[in-house]
Amino acid sequence: MSLGARIKQLRVEHGLTQQEVASHLEMGRSNLGHIENDRVTPTSEDLQKLADILHTTTDYLLGRGAAAATIPEWATYKDKRDFKKLLEEDGEIMFDGVPMSPIDRQRVMDVLTGLFWEAKQMNKHKKKTEAAGHAPDDAQG
User: Fold this and answer.
1) Are 32 and 17 in contact (CB under 8 A)?
2) Does the model's pTM come out above 0.70?
3) Distance CA 75, CA 73 (A)
């Protein structure tokens, strides 16, 4: 799938119009259309803005990451930084002392991606509950 196709797919999944996304990018709707049709390549700055608007990573938009790398809408800048740090640790993943193939490594990373965001969301909920003066769910009898 091309860069433009990924951008369009995510835009549609998020229920955004070309005009809405173009407005965030401070460009005309037709310019975004040209990007989605792969007639124009976005600048690195616009690519980063697109990733933020579409709650994903520039790596995913460029075809370097799996769709599971989509970032939840509630993720803060710090959450995204934590996740990026986790993914950048480029050590080998071993199974029974044998390095995993790139395909198997990506599958493991996809599962870790989902688990990371689930755990992050649970921690945020727990902190919010504790801050409101309520006992955490697991502490209630």
Assistant:
1) no
2) no
3) 6
How many whole angstroms separate alpha carbon 112 and alpha carbon 114?
5
Instruction: Read off the pLDDT band of 68 (50, 70, 90).
Output: very low
> Would you say 59 and 67 are in contact if contact means Cβ atoms under 8 Å apart?
no
Could you give the CA distance from residue 102 to residue 79 in angstroms, rounded to a whole number? 26
| 140 has a pLDDT exceeding 50 | no
Nearest to 115 by CA among 81, 76, 90, 86: 86
pLDDT digits (tens, 9 = 90+) for 41-64: 999 899 999 988 988 888 888 887
Closest CA to 120 of 62, 81, 88, 90: 81
More confident residue, 84 or 31: 31
